[in-house]
């Protein structure tokens, strides 16, 4: 926030509205003025909202402003799981039906697990934990499921506590958080990038968006944000509003196809 405040020259007030998986905050952006002064931070979850019982979320009301990071999922098992390597887990996927925890039908980690099943030929028994990553990981540590997919930052504390074990990441390159291979290195041709970016109310002028570009680029490059991203295992991936807008249009098509196949 300090770097954004320096760039904009005004106070930037964070408001954490996690209710309904971010839908409340999304509604607030939709009802805001198109003056480039109200921002919304989210991932693919925004694109999935209209498919997940939130038809009032109109994606056309959101102007992509900046992508700031791009992380990915990590495959976790219980610390004392019989599958201590990704190769052991992949073998088990082919020989038995494993219980896969996810965060709700059509939600981000559910889609990641469905694509994992498609890429490996696995036949998972899916168990939903709709409160999200912490609930999924707690269930994993308790032995309720055999595996789940959550990002590195969210799983880090339970790994450090010795409750769960990361086996492989779903990124193009290895994560800096854990010493584990990518799934591609393990012989599975599958990646699942998770972008995170900023949106504002659609209708802001190009002049305003150009100023916002400068502010967010400076913020992303600031020492404070670089350090924060490194400490939380979030690889920086910056796109300005034009690049991010084009990217989002492609993502809408990708997820429309995925949701249509459920």
Structural features:
262 residues; alpha+beta; D-Maltodextrin-Binding Protein, domain 2; 8-stranded mixed sheet; 40% helix
Question: If classified by CATH, what would the architecture of the largest domain be?
Answer: 3-Layer(aba) Sandwich
Rg estimate, integer Å: 19 Å
Q: Which topology of the largest domain does CATH recognise? A: D-Maltodextrin-Binding Protein, domain 2
Number of strands: 8
Distance linking N and C termini: 39 Å
Q: Approximately what portion of the residues adopt beta-strand conformation?
A: 15-25%
How does this model look, in words?
Strand 3 (99-102), helix 5 and strand 4 (125-128) form a beta-alpha-beta unit. The chain folds into two domains: 2-70 and 194-260, D-Maltodextrin-Binding Protein, domain 2; 71-169, Periplasmic binding protein-like II (D-Maltodextrin-Binding Protein, domain 2), CATH 3.40.190.10. It is 40% helix and 20% strand. Strands 1, 2, 3, 4, 5, 6, 7 and 8 form an eight-stranded mixed sheet that branches. The chain is built from ten helices and eight strands. The longest helix has 20 residues, at 241-260. With 262 residues, it is of the alpha+beta class. The mean pLDDT is 91.
């Amino acid at each position: 926030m300090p770097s954004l405040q320096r760039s904009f020259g005004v106070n930037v007030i964070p408001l954490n509205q996690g209710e309904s998986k971010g839908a409340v905050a999304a509604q607030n952006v939709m009802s805001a003025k198109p003056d480039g002064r109200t921002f919304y931070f989210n991932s693919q979850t925004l694109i999935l909202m209209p498919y997940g019982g939130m038809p009032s979320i109109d994606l056309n009301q959101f102007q992509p402003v900046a992508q700031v990071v791009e992380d990915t999922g990590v495959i976790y098992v219980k610390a004392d799981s019989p599958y201590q390597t990704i190769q052991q887990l992949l073998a088990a996927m082919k020989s038995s039906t494993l219980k896969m925890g996810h965060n709700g039908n059509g939600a981000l980690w559910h889609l990641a697990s469905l694509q994992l099943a498609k890429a490996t030929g696995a036949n998972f028994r899916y168990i939903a934990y709709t409160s999200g990553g912490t609930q999924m990981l707690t269930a994993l540590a308790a032995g309720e499921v055999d595996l789940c997919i959550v990002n590195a930052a969210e799983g880090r504390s339970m790994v450090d506590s010795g409750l769960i074990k990361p086996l492989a990441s779903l990124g193009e390159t290895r994560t800096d958080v854990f010493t584990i291979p990518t799934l591609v290195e393990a012989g599975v041709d599958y990646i699942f990038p998770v972008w995170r970016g900023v949106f504002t109310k659609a209708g802001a002028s190009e002049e305003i968006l150009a100023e916002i570009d400068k502010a967010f680029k400076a913020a992303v490059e600031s020492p404070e944000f670089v350090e924060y991203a490194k400490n939380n295992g979030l690889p920086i991936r910056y796109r300005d509003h034009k690049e991010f807008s084009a990217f989002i249009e492609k993502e809408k098509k990708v997820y429309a196809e995925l949701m249509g196949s459920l």
